[in-house]
């Protein structure tokens, strides 16, 4: 049980490194300088800045879970276009064509 708690939590060193690099990445963006010049002025390793920028961006990616789409009958009263049955047992009912198009594009 103790090992689970340790493996599921980030170490304080890792968290402080992330914070350190998040702050530099944000400061670099707002500085108006190129990344290379910002690193030179702050005496940072350019490759490390690029590594952390990529790593933190990947950590924040939104991912979609596979969903089975089944066509629901169109009811004039509701204008229900379809229902998405999600793996967790929930259902998402789509009533607007624009919303359906956005979801279908994301599922491609």
Q: Please describe the biggest sheet, giving its number of strands, its sense, and whether it closes into a barrel.
A: 3 strands, antiparallel
Q: What average pLDDT do the residues reach?
A: 79
SSE order, one letter for each helix or strand:
HHHHEEEH
Strand order of the largest sheet: 1-2-3
**Assembly classification:** single chain
Tell me the radius of gyration: 22 Å
Care to count the β-strands?
3
* Number of H- or I-type helical stretches: 5
Which stretches are low in confidence, meaning pLDDT under 50 for 5 or more residues running?
1-8
Helicity range: 55-70%
Which strand-content bin applies to the residues? 5-15%
- The structure class reads mainly alpha
Q: What is the CA-CA span between the terminal residues?
A: 40 Å
Shape: elongated
The total tally of domains equals: 2
Could you explain how this protein is built, in words?
By secondary structure, this protein is mostly helical. It folds into 2 domains: 2-59; 68-107, no CATH class. The protein has 5 helices and 3 strands, in the order ααααβββα. The chain has helices at residues 2-8, 12-31, 35-42, 46-59, 97-107; strands at 68-71, 82-85, 91-94. A 3-stranded antiparallel beta sheet has the order 1-2-3. β2 (82-85) and β3 (91-94) form a beta hairpin. The protein is elongated and about 65 Å long. Residues 1-8 have low confidence and may be disordered.
